[in-house]
Amino acid sequence: MTVAIEMGHTTSGAPAALDLEELLATRLLVQGNSGSGKSHLLRRLLEQSAPWVQQTIIDPEGDFVSLAERFGHLVIDAEAHTERGLQVAGERARMHRVSTVLNLEGLDAENQMRRAAAFLGGLFDAPRDHWYPMLVVVDEAQLFAPAVAGEVSDEARKLSLGAMTNLMCRGRKRGLAGVIATQRLAKLAKNVAAEASNFLMGRTFLDIDMARAADLLGMERRQAESFRDLERGQFMALGPALSRRPLGLRIGVTETSPRNATPRLMPLPEATLDDVRATILAAPPPEPVRPQRRAPSSPDLLGQLMAAKSAALEIRPDVAETPISAEELAERRMRVDRVLHALMAEPDAGFRVVGVLYQEFVVRCRIEGLGAAVPDLDDFRRMLIRARAGLGSDMTNDDGWQDVSVRASILPEDMQGVFMMIARAAKEGWPCPSNAAIARAYGSHSLRRAQRLLNYIEEQGLIVCQLDGAGRRIVTLVELAWATAPGDPNAEEVPAEQA
């Protein structure tokens, strides 16, 4: 059965139809600058196709929750559910063929990526018997499939990018038809954008974006500047579900409206400066105490945590904090160091993601009764650098070591531990660390990467590497005149004094 849904009118005034069956097989990419009408286009598509196909919308701003009242979509507030709960919800939505809106409003970027990935994973992993056709609309897709790494963790980015790649590359056989909208193609991962066969290109101003849009539509480069002249709601269409040749169209009206409407100018309220001064400059209300919830990383630690005394885990805001003496502070630091050393003693600890290590570190600290003294993530990163370099607190307090810390600060944070490990070996007169030891300190298995790290640090003017007659490596720290003893760069074992 062929279902043609009307998206609006072409520039000549004829109805602009979209073949829904063909769309399910070929997917759709929408591009346009902010304010070009992308969300209006998606809303029109969803409203027209709602009676014919199951839908789900990944909604980062809560714009599409208004579809629920008119078309019966189930709104899922992602902030109120865990990642596992959203994954199960995605599977059940496919099984019962219920259209849904995943509302990600109120979450930060990393949690939006994690929860969207979990929900998309549930849709993708549904049993074969429930692979019914489904339209999966992702607004602001560049947030979930970024072309380059941002400020979010690598783990969250990989989860989200993997889910979006599965949707666009492998989703067709499972009945999932991806419809993604982005402000700029340059911000969207190429593997995700390349799988779409239908395109709707709206207003854009940057030369690189106009050129890429023209290439996708098969237009000549001199025609690319026409994208600057498009009005809000006007798009150039191409694809088997739309038109075999570039076609200009204007999106029609919608039955529902977004919650976040376009701002309108309105007169300012009539109030004197004295009337509002006291209100605006009044003291802010006290901030509520919101303890962070960190999931344990393993069932064994969770069992230990549940078995610990509840009194040690209680948060008692009514009890005034007592000043901590220097002896108590030193003892806390020793206990935190012991926890970190026990964590790093595990065989695979050097190769695990920092975020996962931090979660397990927090759990271990709470088991030790250090809930109020747990370092934050930034402090933990610095502690981890020192631990991977084999540094103790006594060495970091050494005056001679301060010069090493200053020099290390010009390197990227993930390389500082490698430099400090080499500096420690040079200060103690130990053999130069092998490539395996350097890779382990960096959190990698690649011996070539270890050699590239040394080359990079040497290019920064911090060290000088040389080989003796036996092929053993010697590293000298510039200006400090510290030099390591000769060491085999291909050795697999870490010397006992450096372990």
From TrEMBL:
Q: Specify whether ATP-binding is a keyword of the entry.
A: yes
Highest taxon above the source species: Bacteria
Q: Does the keyword Nucleotide-binding apply?
A: yes
Q: Where are the transmembrane segments?
A: none
Keywords, comma-separated and alphabetical: ATP-binding, Nucleotide-binding
The cross-references to InterPro entries, in alphabetical order and at most eight, read:
AAA+_ATPase (IPR003593), ATPase_Atu1862_pred (IPR014588), HerA-like (IPR008571), HerA_central (IPR002789), P-loop_NTPase (IPR027417)
| Residue ranges constituting the AAA+ ATPase domain according to the UniProt record | 24-335
The record's annotation in SMART domains points to:
AAA
A Pfam match is: DUF87
GO terms for molecular function, please? ATP binding
> Per its record, how is this protein called by name?
ATP-binding protein
